[in-house]
Amino acid sequence: MRVWRQLTDFVARHGAAALVTVHDVKGSAPRKAGAHMVVRPDGAFHGTIGGGQLEFRMLDIAREMLAAGRGPARIVDQALGPDLGQCCGGRVKILIETFDNRDLEDIAPLVEAEAAGGLFEVECRMEEGRVKRDLASAVGDDRWTGWRETHGEVRTPVLIFGAGHVGRALVLSLAPLPFSVRWLDDREDAFPSHIPPNAKAVRMRDPEAEIAEAGPTSLILVMTHDHPLDMAIVAAALRRGFPYVGLIGSATKRARFEKRFREIGIPEDTIRSLVCPIGLPGIEDKDPPIIAASVTAQLLQVRERVGQDVIPGGPPDREGDP
């Protein structure tokens, strides 16, 4: 979630908004420090701090603060077990802030930093009861006393070759998740009219060049309309050594491709790294949305394994508290 963009939109449309942040966690809790929820004056919200009674209570407090008008920030120190009956049993500090049009100028650099992509650090301090934030590079340690937050998000790049039924279902399945999708097909009018914001549809001219230019952490899925094209793309991808190269097809298709890969000199251990059939074992249904759901779960597993499971606005580097 782009927290600062969402907050700006709510303020622009509704005159005010609250930002609810998991500021600190001790023990077990539904979300890590840095999770956010942006709340409108009418109680509608975007994001989550974990759901359940904790979230309901913080929503009530945020609405009360918004009804009172823009004011000082508030820290709620909440035990989850005895106070709320949640089984997590940990303790959290929740930071709740209110914003209105007077804050849009201060928020603007954070919105811009979010739009640039990736993670960025913010240095925070209290001034007259409100949180003052500055981009870390704009301040410097000699001027800063407070705590740090990390905002933004890391999106894992995914290349999907093929805009058939499964390709379409997969792009939709990945739409709300932390992936950046490059969707490729060589056919004219292959793509639907609506493309999710995290995906870019590209008329493919040179598939091997696409593989050559992809970042080393990219995840590759091959599901074109043409088996020789599939083979050429997979061979190029295997040689690059991506964390995940997946090919749609059966065990029979895999065996045929493996035979050809050995003939062209691809090492045996590299061939074994190919994921085919794609998706989680045990899910046999071939309906495109079910294949897409299974493959999406598999990609999330790979993403976590290679160390890219970064939560937007992830855990702050605590050097102080408001």
Q: What can you see in these coordinates?
A:
It is a single chain. The chain is α/β, with parallel strands linked by helices and 322 residues long. It folds into two domains: 3-153, no CATH class; 156-305, 3-Layer(aba) Sandwich (Rossmann fold). The chain is built from eleven helices and 13 strands. It has helices at residues 3-14, 52-67, 81-84, 104-115, 136-139, 165-174, 207-213, 227-240, 251-263, 268-272, 288-305; strands at residues 16-26, 36-39, 45-47, 74-79, 91-100, 118-127, 130-135, 147-153, 156-161, 179-185, 199-203, 219-222, 244-247. The strands form three sheets. It has a five-stranded antiparallel sheet. The longest helix is centred in the C-terminal third of the chain and has 18 residues, at 288-305. The relative contact order is 0.13. Residues 309-322 have low confidence and may be disordered. Residues 158-299 form the XdhC Rossmann domain. This is Xanthine dehydrogenase accessory protein XdhC. Pfam families: XdhC_C, XdhC_CoxI.
Indicate the topology.
Layout (H helix, E strand, L loop, with lengths): L2 H12 L1 E11 L9 E4 L5 E3 L4 H16 L6 E6 L1 H4 L6 E10 L3 H12 L2 E10 L2 E6 H4 L7 E7 L2 E6 L3 H10 L4 E7 L13 E5 L3 H7 L5 E4 L4 H14 L3 E4 L3 H13 L4 H5 L15 H18 L17
Parallel strand pairs: 9-10, 9-12, 10-11, 12-13
Antiparallel strand pairs: 1-2, 1-5, 2-3, 4-5, 6-7, 6-8
Helix pairs in contact: 1-4, 6-11, 7-8
Name the features.
alpha/beta; Rossmann fold; 11 helices; single chain; 13 strands; elongated; 2 domains; 5-stranded parallel beta sheet; 322 residues
